[in-house]
Write a structure and sequence with these properties.
Helix content: 25-40%
Oligomer: single chain
CATH architecture of the largest domain: Sandwich
Strand order of the largest sheet: 8-11-14-10-9-16
Shape: globular
CATH topology of the largest domain: Tumour Suppressor Smad4
Largest sheet: 6 strands, antiparallel, barrel
Structural class: alpha+beta
Order of helices and strands: HEHEHEHEHEHEEEHHEEEEEEHEEE
Distance between the termini: 34 Å
């Protein structure tokens, strides 16, 4: 019997396991951990990067133990894919300590966030013969370009020993002005196809936000009764016109420009570009992609009365 389980038996106090990501981009991680540890005598912090098997981890937990996940959207995505298909019965909570925190922004100000019901309704993206779940969105186009460029800048900074902050706004501006070339695209939503020229963005959204506050799909509901996701296509714009419209995306006002913005909802979506383009899945870059497909929802069993 481990010391934690022995202490649990003697005090009859439920154990709270804190799964934290030490690489999450915010400085909030360490203070959050200290606060959580001070709030409970049976609070156990665990570096999520050291968990080799979530199946093994959850099979060893007490039935009344709670799990608090600390990190950013990337950490949440890693966790969601790690528990895919597992019959988890423990209550799971989330404390955002990343830089973008779009999942938390979408849900509101409750801290910590109970997330069992959201984890059991995640869509799945397929590309290159592989599939994975995503929490916020799959970004294709300018946002994929920004993600790839930021990765390259980050890599160069590390190689030269620099610690500069990366400005995604500056990268996006450079892409709009000259570096990113819009693509032609065909999108298919629940079997119906549409073709567009000069496509700047074509993300599939599970929530309203991505990229640190970009409201690409203001009407998207993570708990949609039909399990549908949203596809936003921004197309047909010159560079100058794109510069005038893109600021409105942060508040979801771009949807008023119906000539240039098309919003779809569906359960099966495929997006094809006419040449290789970087893509991002919850902030993780995938270079040289020509197509991706999304299916939603993916059934699983997560937590207590939240059974999907």
């Amino acid at each position: 019997m481990t010391p934690v389980r022995k202490r649990r038996k003697e005090t009859a106090v439920a154990v709270t396991y804190i799964l934290y990501n030490p690489h999450a981009g915010s400085t909030d991680t360490d203070p959050t951990l200290r606060t959580l540890r001070e709030q409970g005598k049976d609070t156990v912090p665990i570096n999520i990067c050291r968990i080799s098997s979530f199946r093994t981890f959850f099979s060893g937990l007490e039935e009344d133990a709670a799990v608090v996940l600390c990190g950013g959207d990337g950490t949440l995505s890693l966790f969601a894919n790690g528990i895919k298909g597992l019959p988890i019965r423990n209550k799971i909570y989330y404390l955002p300590t990343g830089t973008g925190n779009d999942f938390a922004r979408d849900l509101g100000e409750v801290r910590p966030l109970p997330i069992n019901r959201y984890l059991c309704r995640l869509p799945e993206v397929t590309l290159g013969g592989e599939s994975r779940l995503f929490v916020n969105n799959v970004g294709f186009g300018l946002d994929g370009y920004c993600s790839e460029t930021a990765d390259n800048v980050r890599r160069d900074n590390r190689a030269q020993g620099r610690h500069h902050n990366i400005s995604y706004a500056k990268i996006a501006l450079g892409g709009l002005l000259r570096r990113f070339r819009p693509r032609n695209a065909t999108v298919t939503v629940d079997g119906k196809s549409h073709s567009y020229k000069r496509v700047w963005l074509a993300p599939v959204m599970n929530g309203r936000y991505y990229g640190g506050g970009i409201m690409a799909a203001p009407e998207q509901d993570r708990l949609d009764s039909h399990g549908a996701v949203s596809l936003a296509v921004i197309h047909g714009l010159s560079r100058l016109h794109a510069l005038t419209i893109f600021p409105s995306v942060f508040k979801g006002k771009h949807v008023k420009h119906k000539r240039y913005v098309s919003i779809f909802k569906g359960n099966t979506i495929r997006v094809e570009f006419d040449r290789p383009t970087p893509l991002q899945i919850d902030g993780e870059t995938v270079p040289g992609v020509t197509w991706y497909s999304v299916t939603s929802p993916v059934p699983c069993i997560v937590g207590g009365d939240a059974v999907c």
